[in-house]
Amino acid sequence: MHIRILGVGAGGGLPQWNCGCANCEAARSGFIPSMTQSSVAVSGDGIRWLLLNASPDIRLQMQQTPELHPTGLRKSPLSAAIVTNGDVDHVAGLLTLREKTAFDLYATPATQSVLSANPIFGVLDRDLVTRRDLRLEEPFAPVSGLTVTAYAVPGKVPLYLEDDGFDTGPRTRETGEQTIGLRIESAAGVFHYLPGCADLPAWLCSRLEDADLLLFDGTVWSDEEMPRSGTGKKTGARMGHLAMSGRDGSLARLAQLKGRRIYIHVNNTNPVLLPNGPERAAIAAAGWELAQDGMEITL
Ligand code: MLT
Ligand code: MN
Ligand code: ZN
Questions:
Q1: Which residues of the chain have pLDDT under 70?
Q2: What is the pTM of this model?
Q3: Residue 27 alpha carbon to ligand 3 centre in Å
Q4: Which atom of ligand 1 approaches the CA of 88 most closely?
């Protein structure tokens, strides 16, 4: 199985256009690597590729990934895409994938209805881009050599679908069709992909135990990170993202896993981005890696 990390950043990327925080400034000055927004490509045979989320940066990401370059006149190695939620950083890149090349677009019925309700996604010609309902817990093969099983994980609806009086408690960690994890299996091994996850109950920790590779939500180091840094009012929990640190954070909750563990979907406020800080040392000591744009992984 071939995996290419196209983008590590959470919504906004690094640096974010309007942000002068220490991390964004460090990225502008070249002290730390920039991050495009959340997207991964995976292939079983190195020929046909499956896109996992389509970020607003997809055009640049594909340009920087030779495996995804056209193989002929108007012919692409990209043959299918799955979106794991309806967030802007995961669907806006679909608009770039117009231009009349066929591929299969998989999402849960709930996320498909979000796309269908928005006429701008009609730029994806329905005669070529086949929208397929992705059924939870039903394995399928979107490209040859890869078997994908989608499962519900705790999460919330996209920000733009929050209604007036959105319940900022339980509705930020609902387990349903709006936020999914993916288990991707080939003859080489098992890869779990969870770029957004609001909680790690015991059933989910157990479910991840068969992962040879886990790419997991690394949005924030601490729940209070945005309010404390003055970059925003929302906590990680309010945004539907479990923090890395803390008693119930992903570092503690996933300490028993044996496979390779890598954080992705990292927000520009996360202090783990600083290479010499205690947060980076803490994830390394716990056996975690931090993804980088362009990273290649082979199972
Ligand atoms: C998220 O992951 O919380 C969203 O992508 C935030 C956003 O839409 O900017
Ligand atoms: Mn996001
Ligand atoms: Zn910033």
A1: none
A2: 0.98
A3: 9
A4: 8
